[in-house]
Each structure stands twice: as structure tokens, then as C-alpha cells.
């Protein structure tokens, strides 16, 4: 049941179908009272007044319960993290100068009432760009009525936000429990849409950045319930990248792209140039995301032109020079790793994904039951990050421990379904939510044999594996993730002549040759204890601009901190005789989180 009466709407006893009734918003002010201008779809809960344009969505009981649950979860999650600080709101600064009010209303064409509604303030602040004190218009970022952050903007377009304060969307309270919302790239653009009557508008906090960490806390409470989301960011190259990441996180099915027309890069420019009515029309004409899976050359015009002008570019590097010269990575790909049991597949992959995250901000999701309990795995990751054993000591101080755990909290998530259901569909559904809520770009499935194998009636093991690989590949493409799958080989027999074990190949993986056929990257980890060398064989790289197949990279494993040091192989002269071993080893015991403002820049 939907409670229309709490909104002052009389459905005349009807509970389904479509009806017309009087509008609670405009009926009292109309000359012809009692006119039934409000159309209601009782089944869908949608209301629209043909006279005043009033729109309303009324949830059913189940949706209302979900809304209340989200609200409770959100209120519990609003506790301020210890590493954030908050500014103090000074109401006396809401008295604005005439010059600022004229700038707001005459130059920006924004409604004067918004200065009060948005609690705009004015203050003289020393700004880092000029190293001078400047008069600033202050956009105050509130959440639940509490001031969280402030952006200072001077007339010279110098900006500053409160150091150490949390980044949250501007005007975030306005989209809680609304069926739609508009996302802009700047506060002036948000105010432009509010000027023309929309209230459900927010702005991203830090301009056009692909790092959307600020969104994580609000996905479930503010964004998941949305039926429709207008992406109204700037129409420049940075804005397009932001738009793509927002669509990836929020889902293309409910996003619409707003375009502002010739000579207008944003909403405020459009309002100034064409007026309020025209700005509303941009929402009506907002572009749907192209139909998934159906493309023409026109749909790919921009990336095609970029490819034509710039050529194929190498992928993401890891910082291991010996690996990078033969293989680089990109999202949207499936990488299969194999190797004998206990030879370090998981250890190497852990460092690989940490390096990709540090260099490129690719957040990581692990499905890794063999690394449980989770604390053990997190401790191993911490050792790789810091270069120190995970225990109190001169290297691992309390301050470094806190910084490391905070970095891991921000960038690493483990998937461990509560139900204990480890089917590929269950794992990918969790991963899908992590893409939206946390911005995950790497999914590690380690290993394959811990996924519940549920064959359909009449399905062979070969068909099951092919289906599973297809699901992983589609997930990688649809969500622009790098999916890493660890698959154990069958037993490899020793050479009967010399007793040596040959290295594992893709065709040795249990079940199907399709592991090698369907993957974009194929790697084998081979550890030789006699030589003290770990060799990473690059057996397949689908696209030649990303690297070369049938190559390898050699490493020495550091047992103290779990890192892999690049090396070369040659004859080493030892007291027990000459034999092959590592030479020219590149040692690295540095703390990767040391002396940097942004941890992700450690390898730049």
C-alpha cells in the first residue's frame, strides 16, 4: 500500500489504476478551486500536476521500510572519522557585502534567496595560490545541519578548502529520499539549477577528478534509491572523464547526460546565456546512455579519433621495470595466473595489485578464502606496503600502523558472502556493488577451485568453465575492471631422465584449454629454490601494445616483508661451487607510504 493521504492527496478510495484529483500544492491559490489537475498512477506511486508542474513519488510499504533502514544505517555511519576535523559555522558572516550580492545576482544570474538558503558567507582568508589575504565567497558544506567543510573562492578564482576536513558533496542533504537528483561539477552550477526551481541538486566537492572516494559513504543512503540521475558536469575533457566514472559507479540504466549547447561548458554559463526556461529544457533533452551492447562508429567517435591521432598507448605499469618492459595492464581485461601449489602465486599477485593501486588508484576487491582469516591477509599486505614486519618495533610505529590500516581501509575490500555461498554469480554480485559503492577497479578471484561449482542439468565441466570465464570477462568489460583469476594446475610429473619438474603451462590447468584461449593475459609463476629465483612467465598478452607474449621477468623473494625484488640470472660464485642464481638484484625495503601527501603517488 502507498500512503497518499500523508501528502494531502485524496485518492477517493481507489487503490489501483489511474485517477485524477485536486493538487495539494496549487488548489488553495487557484481561482477555480476543486479542479482535478493532479494525475496519479496508483500502482506506480507517480503524481503530476498539469497546472503547477508539482511532481511526487509515493513509495509503497516495502520501499518505505527500506528507506527507514537506509536512514538508520546512514545515521549510524555518520560518526566522524578520527582523522577528519570540522570547521565552525559563524552565522554573523551571513551578512554579505553589496558587491558580493551584485556579483551573485547580476553576473551569475542566480536567485538572491539562495544566499540565505545555502547559508553563503563572506570572509577574508589567506589563500595558498596568491599567498595573500583575499575576500572570499564561502560555500559551506553541510550534512544533517552540521558544517563539514567550506570552500573559499576569491574574485581571482583562487580556491581553498578546510585542511583536514572531510570531502562530501555540496548540498548533500537536498537529495536524501528524493527519486531523482542532479550532479554538477561546481557550486555555481548547482545554484543555477536551484535558481530555476530544482532542489535535488548536488555538486562534486573537488571538481573533475576520477577519484570519487567522497561518494563511498553516500552510495547506499543517497544514491541507491534514485530512479533517475542527471549527470550535469562540465563539457570539457576533464568533465567527460568525471561523467564516465559517475556513470560507471551509479549505473548507466538510470543516468542521463545533460548537454548545455554551443559555447556553454556548464549549467551556470547556460543560465546566463539562454535563461531559466532553456536550462530546464536541457534536463528534458538529457541524453540516455547508449544502448548497451549495440554500437556504431558514431558511438565510438571520440575514442576512435583519439586512437587515430595518438596511436595505441601502453597500459598501466607496476614499477617493476623488468615486468613493465614486457607487459602492462589495462582495465576491462581478464588475467589468468597459474603455477604449482606453494610457489607464490597469491604472494606475487598481492604485490602486483598493491602496486597498481598505488600508481593508478585502482582500488582492489579480493575474493580469497585461502587467505582467511582476513587479519592474516591484511597483515601480509601491510608488510608489503611498509617494508617492515607486522609487529611493534622501530620500523612499524603506532603512527605508521594507523596510516597503513587507514590506507588499507580506503583501498582494499574483501568479499566473503555471509551465506557462505561461493558461486560465481554471488561473488560477481558483491563485486558489482563494490564497483558502485567503493570504486573498485581490480577484482582478484583466488583461487578458482574455491568457487562453488554448480553445473546446470546436462551441463559438462567444459561448458561450466567456459560459462564461468565468459561471466568474468563480461564483468571486466562492463565494469571496466581488471579481473585476476588464480587457477591451480593438475599434477605435473617429473622428467624421468633428470628428475626435474618442467614449468607449468596454461594447458596444465584443470578442466579446459579455454583458460588460455579466453583470457587476455596469461601468467605462470615458477619458483626455483635451487637458484633462489622466482620467474614470472608471460605466456599471453592479447594486444601487442600492452606487451609481448613468451617473455619472462625474474625476481628474488624477500621473506621478511614479502616483496619481490627484480633480478637477472647468471652464474654465481659461491663457496660450495658455481651455480645459477640471482645477480643485479634491485633491492627495495622503503616504506611506500612515507613522506607523501597522496599515498597513490608513491611510484610517480
Automatic annotation (TrEMBL):
Query: Cross-referenced CDD domains, in alphabetical order?
Result: TOPRIM
The molecular function terms in GO held by this entry are: 5'-3' DNA helicase activity; ATP binding; single-stranded DNA binding; zinc ion binding
**Coiled coil: which residue ranges?**
none
Listed SUPFAM superfamilies: DNA primase core, P-loop containing nucleoside triphosphate hydrolases
InterPro entries per the UniProt record, alphabetical: DNA_helicase_DnaB-like_C, DNA_primase_Znf_CHC2, P-loop_NTPase, Twinkle-like
- Please give the superkingdom of this protein's source: Bacteria
Q: Name one Pfam family in it.
A: Toprim_2
User: Example GO biological process term?
Assistant: DNA replication
Annotated SF4 helicase domain residues: 309-571
Q: Tell me which PANTHER family the record gives.
A: T7-LIKE MITOCHONDRIAL DNA HELICASE, TWINKLE MTDNA HELICASE
Q: What is this protein called?
A: SF4 helicase domain-containing protein
Which organism is this entry from? Bacteroides cellulosilyticus
Q: What is the lineage of its organism?
A: Bacteria, Pseudomonadati, Bacteroidota, Bacteroidia, Bacteroidales
Amino acid at each position: 500500500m502507498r500512503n497518499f493521504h500523508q501528502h494531502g492527496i485524496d485518492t477517493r478510495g481507489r487503490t489501483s489504476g489511474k485517477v485524477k484529483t485536486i493538487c495539494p500544492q496549487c488548489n488553495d491559490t487557484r481561482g477555480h478551486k476543486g479542479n482535478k489537475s493532479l494525475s496519479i498512477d496508483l500502482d506506480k506511486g507517480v503524481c503530476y500536476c498539469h497546472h503547477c508542474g508539482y511532481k511526487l513519488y509515493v513509495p509503497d510499504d516495502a520501499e518505505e521500510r527500506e528507506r527507514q533502514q537506509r536512514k538508520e544505517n546512514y545515521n549510524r555511519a555518520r560518526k566522524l572519522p578520527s582523522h577528519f576535523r570540522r570547521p565552525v559555522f559563524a552565522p554573523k558572516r551571513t551578512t554579505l557585502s553589496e558587491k558580493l550580492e551584485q556579483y551573485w545576482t547580476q553576473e551569475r544570474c542566480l536567485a538572491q534567496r539562495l544566499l540565505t538558503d545555502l547559508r553563503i558567507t563572506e570572509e577574508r582568508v589567506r589563500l595558498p595560490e596568491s599567498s595573500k589575504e583575499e575576500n572570499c565567497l564561502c560555500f559551506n558544506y553541510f550534512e544533517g545541519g552540521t558544517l563539514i567543510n567550506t570552500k573559499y573562492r576569491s574574485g581571482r578564482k583562487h580556491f581553498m578548502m578546510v585542511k583536514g576536513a572531510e570531502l562530501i558533496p555540496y548540498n548533500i542533504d537536498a537529495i536524501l529520499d528524493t527519486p531523482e537528483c542532479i550532479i554538477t561539477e561546481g557550486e555555481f552550477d548547482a545554484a543555477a539549477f536551484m535558481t530555476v526551481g530544482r532542489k535535488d541538486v548536488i555538486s562534486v566537492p573537488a571538481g573533475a577528478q576520477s577519484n570519487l572516494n567522497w561518494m563511498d559513504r553516500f552510495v547506499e543512503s543517497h544514491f541507491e534509491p534514485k530512479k533517475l540521475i542527471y549527470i550535469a558536469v562540465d563539457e570539457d575533457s576533464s568533465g567527460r572523464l568525471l561523467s564516465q566514472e559517475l556513470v560507471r559507479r551509479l549505473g548507466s540504466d538510470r543516468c542521463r547526460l545533460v548537454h548545455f549547447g554551443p559555447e556553454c561548458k556548464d549549467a551556470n554559463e547556460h543560465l546566463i546565456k539562454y535563461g531559466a526556461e532553456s536550462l530546464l529544457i536541457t534536463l528534458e533533452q538529457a541524453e540516455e546512455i547508449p544502448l548497451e551492447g549495440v554500437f556504431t562508429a558514431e558511438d565510438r567517435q571520440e575514442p576512435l579519433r583519439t586512437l587515430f591521432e595518438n596511436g595505441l598507448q601502453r597500459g598501466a605499469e607496476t614499477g617493476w621495470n623488468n615486468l613493465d618492459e614486457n607487459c602492462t595492464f589495462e582495465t576491462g581485461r581478464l588475467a589468468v595466473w597459474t603455477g604449482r601449489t606453494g610457489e607464490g602465486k597469491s604472494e606475487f599477485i598481492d604485490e602486483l595489485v598493491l602496486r597498481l593501486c598505488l600508481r593508478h588508484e585502482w582500488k582492489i576487491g579480493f575474493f580469497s578464502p585461502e587467505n582467511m582469516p582476513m587479519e592474516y591477509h591484511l597483515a601480509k599486505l601491510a608488510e608489503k606496503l611498509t617494508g617492515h614486519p607486522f609487529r611493534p618495533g622501530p620500523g612499524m610505529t603506532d603512527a605508521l600502523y594507523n596510516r597503513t590500516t587507514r590506507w588499507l581501509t580506503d583501498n582494499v575490500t574483501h568479499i566473503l558472502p555471509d551465506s557462505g555461498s561461493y558461486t560465481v554469480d554471488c561473488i560477481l554480485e558483491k563485486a558489482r556493488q563494490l564497483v558502485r559503492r567503493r570504486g573498485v577497479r581490480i577484482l582478484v578471484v583466488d583461487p578458482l577451485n574455491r568457487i562453488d561449482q554448480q553445473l546446470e542439468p546436462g551441463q559438462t565441466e567444459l561448458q561450466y568453465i567456459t560459462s564461468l570465464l565468459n561471466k568474468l570477462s563480461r564483468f571486466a568489460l562492463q565494469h571496466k575492471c581488471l579481473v585476476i583469476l588464480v587457477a591451480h594446475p593438475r599434477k605435473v610429473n617429473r622428467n624421468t631422465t633428470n628428475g626435474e619438474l618442467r614449468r607449468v603451462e596454461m594447458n596444465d590447468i584443470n578442466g579446459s584449454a579455454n583458460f588460455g584461449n579466453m583470457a587476455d593475459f596469461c601468467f605462470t609463476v615458477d619458483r626455483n629454490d635451487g637458484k633462489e629465483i622466482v620467474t614470472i612467465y608471460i605466456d599471453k598478452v592479447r594486444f601487442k601494445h600492452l606487451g609481448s607474449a613468451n617473455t619472462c621477468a625474474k625476481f628474488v623473494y624477500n621473506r621478511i616483508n614479502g616483496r619481490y625484488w627484480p633480478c637477472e640470472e647468471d652464474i654465481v660464485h659461491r663457496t660450495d661451487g658455481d651455480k645459477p642464481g640471482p645477480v643485479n638484484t634491485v633491492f627495495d625495503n622503503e616504506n611506500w607510504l612515507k613522506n607523501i601527501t597522496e599515498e597513490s603517488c608513491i611510484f610517480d
